[in-house]
Request: fold
Amino acid sequence: MIKAAIKGIGWVTAEGFGTAKQDDHFQVTAGKVPKLQRKDFFDEPDQRFGRLDAYSKMGVAAFTLAMRDAGLNGLNAQCRLAAVVSTSNGSLTADHEYYQTVIPQDGLLASPNLFAYTLPNCMLGEVSIRHNITGPCIVVEPLDSTMLTGIIQGLNMLSYGMCDMVIAGYCDAGRECVTPGSPGKPMAAFMVMHLADKIGNLCYNGDKLTINGIEQPDIATLVKSTIASKYI
Amino acid sequence: MEVRSINLTDVYITDHGCVTSLGRNDSELWAKLLNGQCGFAPVTRFSTANYVNNTAACIKELDAIPHGQRASALIDMVFDSNPDIPKDCALITASTKGNIEWLEGHLRESNNSCDNDPPAIMPGPAVSSKLGLNDNGFNVNAACASSTMAVLMAAEMIKSGQKDAVLIFGLDLVTEFVYAGFSALKAMSETTARPFDANRDGLILGEAGAYMLLMSKERAKREGRNIHGQVAGCGSSSDATHITAPARDGCGLKRAVTLAVDNAGCELNEITAINAHGTGTIYNDAMELTAFNALYNEHIPPIFSVKGAIGHCLGPCGLVEMIIALRSLKEQVIPPIVGMSQPDEALANSISGQTLKLSGNVMLKTNSGFGGTNVALILKGGNR
Reply:
């Protein structure tokens, strides 16, 4: 049994963005994500943020909010932090946009900038640069509807001793053209977690993920349950 | 101080296989590598007129397969020999773009409409169905370190006792999608791949399908499995410096190697040889040589790359290279670095265009990728 405490949560959905400690309203709905502006997430100018694809922008934003919620901004490289995220569609939107630059003239105008973001792990690369995450950064692409694989792998990484703290979650731009099992709703949600045998209320027994003993069927329920539990 | 989990069990490599441009099985690949053969040839699947070259290491049999069906054909080829894969094993796949040909065809034909849900682009469901596994698993996407990362995760699952058998499968194809991207990034050589050569100027793409079955020591012995080797240690890190360029000082790779060596409970001077990422790009190879130079004060073991022979196969490259690394330990020899004629002076004494004899049983395997990811594994040889 892995027991962990949650230090912070950040999210971006079609309803907006927020953090657990601010008591922001978390809801996952179909629709378009509101415009994410650099000033809402970073104090310093960050030209690259505005140029990111939708998936990367949502991921970087939600990750940054989770770090802020956990009071982890301004980390140095000595922290043993890792990041793991699951995604359904991953970089599918970037795939579309990039390949539209390849088709017209048989690749003559292929965009190198868009190509880089056809790898879904580049979102975590962006995160690692901004927050100096020097531990493992992993994207997992499961075919299920729970969207919990990132959280579970994050807990596993803690239990393996790969890191002291992990920022784990789910990120998907929710394109209408979806892979089987995907909910098709835009959502990026990250949790900052660390092992806590005595006080941890997030438990994974290799089969089920529970909060205060109640099974969590998907990530949206997990986020809502965690916020409601006031244990952060 | 780094603290890692206690190794509750050894992680054994009990089966593996691969299909590359140099053959449909490990033995064919190994023989051709020792002969210094190269799998590069002109690409015929799509027009390369507007790219920096027209070469790739394609699997010839796949050229005749219709566009969009090559990924499933490659899965069939990889498991053609009906390996004994237990139905209850966990599955982790490693692919950067999977069956991206499906999306290519869809976008060319549908003008970007999304009327139909795409089929599963990643190979998990097809592999699971082919082998009758109970698990669809998940795909690990860590760019060119995907399969090395997948092996790391599988090894940790087994060490911790969560699983006692994990199948790792990797696959990526030479497609216009990827070819155009590397050409646009100016990461592709105009001529040929020359890993660790002083005059290297870029990579050549390749394709591969590969699998590796990991088991706990206890299960492997109980089932009387062949022991091809052991994953003795793992480490992973992020550069946190750039998305498409490696950290110039090799900081991330050094950290990953240090973690892997510590995890294996061995010393750097116990490593017999290093199978590096060795893409043939100016900056990747320089980063690796910088990192290895910094890790070792002296007596750096032999370093080799096979990407001058089979190209850069992206997601599965680590699996293919692990298979070659294990064979190297078994035969006590490493193949020549195909394409390299003038060793980079940064580590000229450790890289060779000739076959080199080994004396030892420990291989350091490293891969690095876009996003700044690095993975290092310590492999030990099996039955000789």
Notes: Chain B has twelve helices and 14 strands.
